[in-house]
Amino acid sequence: MAKPRVGISACLLGRNTRYDGRAKGAPELIAALAPDVEWVPLCPETDAGLGVPRPPMDLYRLADGRIAAITPEGHDCTPQLDAWIAATLPALRRGGLDGAILKARSPSCAIGTALLHDGVPGQNGNPGLATYSASAGEGAPKSVGGTASDGASAPGVFCDGLFAAALKRDIPELSLAEDEDLRSAAQRELFLARLRVHQRLRRDRRWLLVILALLLALLAFMLSSPALSRYLPPCPLHYLSHGRLTCPGCGFTRGWQALLAGDWRGAGVYHPFAFRLLPLLALVALGHGLLCRWQRRRWPWSQWLWTALGAWLAAWLLTLRG
Ligand code: SF4
């Protein structure tokens, strides 16, 4: 049986991909999960061509709000990393990934534990060349004005590494964990369960979509005929409150029937969304497509769906008030 596919920071697998040419293996974690998953090793920094060994880098919030990965010498590695991320994410999405285990505190891989500085290296008390040493953590400053150190316990602001942030933004349904989140057997079991659910949904998605399309077609067919729509179940809220309360979907059937009969005004009276739903959805889909193309990134649909749901509920509350 196919196993869930899990992206993993290559250094955790014991590969010598870190800036200092060493690995940061997690043998216990790898041994525990290896029988149940298929690894997809990734190293954003070496795969982007930054080389091994390479200068360590840290994350800085620049004056324009961007977060950049900069070496102590001031070299901005962000364009190189961004180019690799933009080329890799579509392939990961197509190849089918169920989750990822990423290295804590890395400026590329961390999930919320990468130290974030304000400004640029050598300014605002930020670390410069002299503050790094070969024994530092993944791109971690040894000491910055007494506030930063190699570890999540240091006071300061932390954020996602550049690759982890892109992964969250572009494939939001993925299960993500840092190596340090999976120390106990219980944590690993829970993570594995999430991976298996994702794998099942990914595998069965085509069938689910076919079933959903068939159900929608059947519903549309029943709605198109007053004779058939008699067989649709009554609204439970309307029924149980003896007609005193309506639900957010009440009036939708009659609205659609009016719409199909060419009575646009009547459709709007029965249910505001019956009249406006299709053009609204078409506009949302068009806007979504244009935004993704313009920004060259994939925006999650969830934002639009929540907005549409909010508008629907607001329309329902207005009908209740009336
Ligand atoms: S933490 Fe990420 S970027 Fe750094 S060596 Fe490991 S895989 Fe590569």
TrEMBL record:
<keyword id="KW-0812">Transmembrane</keyword>
<feature type="transmembrane region" description="Helical">
    <location>
        <begin position="304"/>
        <end position="320"/>
    </location>
</feature>
<feature type="transmembrane region" description="Helical">
    <location>
        <begin position="207"/>
        <end position="228"/>
    </location>
</feature>
<keyword id="KW-1133">Transmembrane helix</keyword>
<dbReference type="InterPro" id="IPR007553">
    <property type="entry name" value="2-thiour_desulf"/>
</dbReference>
<keyword id="KW-0472">Membrane</keyword>
<feature type="transmembrane region" description="Helical">
    <location>
        <begin position="273"/>
        <end position="292"/>
    </location>
</feature>
<dbReference type="Pfam" id="PF10825">
    <property type="entry name" value="DUF2752"/>
</dbReference>
<dbReference type="InterPro" id="IPR021215">
    <property type="entry name" value="DUF2752"/>
</dbReference>
<protein>
    <submittedName>
        <fullName>Uncharacterized protein YbbK (DUF523 family)</fullName>
    </submittedName>
</protein>
<dbReference type="Pfam" id="PF04463">
    <property type="entry name" value="2-thiour_desulf"/>
</dbReference>
